[in-house]
Each structure stands twice: as C-alpha cells, then as structure tokens.
Amino acid sequence: MKQRSMSLVLCLLLAVLSGCTGQKQSVSKTDFAFDTVITLTAYGDVDTAVLDEALALCQRYDALLSRTEPGSDVFNLNAAQGEWVKVDEQTYALLERATAYSELSAGCFDITTAPLTQLWNFKAEQPRVPGKEAIEEALTKVDYHKIEMRDGNEVRLNGGAQIDLGGIAKGYVADRVAEFLKDRGVRHAIIDLGGNVLAFGGLADGRPFTIGIQDPAGERGTLMATYTATDLSWVTSGSYERYFEVDGQRYHHILDPKTGYPVQNGLASVTIFSSQSIEGDALSTACFVAGPEKGMAIIESQPGVEALFVLTGGEVLRSSGLENDENLKIMAAGQ
Fold it and tell me: Is pTM, for the whole model, over 0.85?
C-alpha cells in the first residue's frame, strides 16, 4: 500500500520575497490549530501583539468547533444523540451557513459525513478500504436534513447523525480573523489556515499579492496558474491532497455523501476565488463532489464567486468571470 498526504499550501509569490527594496517590514506568526499549521502575516507598521491575539482567537474557535475535543460544541452535539444542545451563537451561525450550502449543492456539501470519514480514516498510519456493508451502514446516518435547529441557539442531531465541520470551519474562522485584524488597525495581511487563504489590502507599498495555484499532477510547488489581487480569498480542494493506494487503485479523501466512496468524476482539483473564505471552503468541496458541469453551474449562480476546475487529463475550466480576467495567468497543467 502506498500512502501520501500533501498539505494544500497555495504558494504565495510575493514581490517582497524576491529581495526587492522599498518593501516595508512584514511580521509573521505561526501556530497549530484545526489539525493544521496556521500562519498570519501582516505588512507595514504592525504591533506583533495583535497577531498573537488573532492566533489566540483561532485557538478559541478550534476549541469550540473541534469534533474530537471533549467539551466543544461539536463534540457535545455528536454525543447528545436526539437531545437538544445549546451551542455558542458562532457555532449556530456556522451551522446555518453549512446547511445553506448543503441546500445550494443538493447535498454535495454535507457536514454529516463524519461517520464516513471516521470509517475511511485517511489519517491512519495504515488506512484501508472499508467493507461495502460498513459503508452502507454509515450512509444511513449521512443526511444534513438530520440537523434540526431552533431559536435560542439550540441544535439537535437525529438518526445517528454526526457532524464534522472540517470542510467549512477554517473558511468561517478566516473571515472572523480578518474582521478582527481590520478592527485592530491592520490594513495589509494574509491569513493562511492550512491552505485556506484570505488576503486583504495588498502589500504595504501598494502592490497587489500574486498567488500561485498548485498543479494537481505536479510535485508540491509546481504551479498551473497565478492570480494577482489586492483583496481575495482562495481555497482549493484536490484529490492529490491526501490519498492512499491499494493494488494500483487510488483512494482520495474527498468522499461522495451519496455513495460513501471517494469521488470519481474527472476532476483533479477545484479552486474557488471569492471575497469570503467560507464561500471558498464550502464551495470547493461542493463543486468537487458535484462534478464539472453541475459544479460550474453552482459557481455561475453565486455573485462574486469564480472558479478554476482542473480535470484529471490536465484540461482547465474557468468560470465566466475569469474568461477575460487579465489577472489570471494559466500555465499548462499536468505537464
């Protein structure tokens, strides 16, 4: 068996890294939360204590939204099968957004896939393909309609449902961290929560950020596109991020909530460009599961959201708003 895990870091090609003079000082702080490395970088005259406070905010959200942390809202919900649980207003707001994306995508995005992700356990040292009966049993518990919500920030999970916010929480938190930094006077920053990246204000000298998009068929750091922007969130979901192989068959970590198996629809990666990171987080997964045609239809229905789809053969599809966008430079993928 062959196993591979690639941290989905979209390479940031900042002019400041090239050694150019005249760029004001940048400050970075790194921590570990949401089961990944998180990095906050601010440009210009910034009090480093503000970044420390922002990292502490990330830790508070992690403690609130973690599936495995005893006492978290998600842990308590999963443990209280069939009982109403009062959750934090932030958790409630996030669950509302999550179920809205489930409705938008006809269930292609579904936070109740926890029974499936636990069954496949891609983080195991020796992951294995679950049996058909076990997958069918887990599927009986997967359905976002099993999430019931009522006034007073109360939530109930029915029918054995278990939730996992890993497909949307980092996006939600990135948006909250951006709000916090702006409120504290930070005007130029990059928030990188394990590959969920939100940048605002450009560089302190007025230049925009230039970011690179990973080629899903290439080695880490091999780019298939670059995009230049001052304010932007970008999130990618790809079959190359985490997978294992058995007898020549690859099994990646993006599971279809309807079949219980890794998605196989010709997509290799989906990158979402948007103003809100929560949009990119949820829609990158939703579109990957939905497939090229239905996924692009979802994107075209969302104002201010654009996407790049890379097919397994290397073909690149782009949403209508990117067709004549001079900020986007596409190289050949899969070469």
Answer: yes
